[in-house]
Amino acid sequence: MANALYDKGREGFLDGSINYASGNIKVVLVDTGLYTPDLATHANLSDIPTGARISTSANLASKTVTGGVADAADITFTAVSGATVEAIVLYKDTGTASTSRLIAFIDTMTGLPFTPNGGNVNLAWSNGATKIFKL
Fold first, then answer.
1. Strand positions, DSSP E, 1-134
2. Domain count, the chain
């Protein structure tokens, strides 16, 4: 699958329930051996099985939205262990998996896939035209 936005994420941008610039936006490292994305029907973090969620970031920092392009500071996941990570998912964190809206599924970026070894994992966003994603 190629990088894409979840339909419910798009809906969230349009209905105002997702404010990328000021919201609590996080990234989860995902094992696609245990999760097959359904961009049309998956809406919340709870749609990704717990076992497929390898590690979760802190809130993204230094977010920008210039020209409809989402960007943020690169992030570091600390002491990551578990299954192979083939994708990442951005989501709006509400503190509850069943209401934390999925935004984007990304499986084609530098460094993916990788097998965690207990060390830190640095995630560097693209410096290209679409950065993290473009609406």
1. 4-5, 25-30, 53-56, 69-70, 75-77, 87-92, 102-106, 121-123, 133-134
2. 1
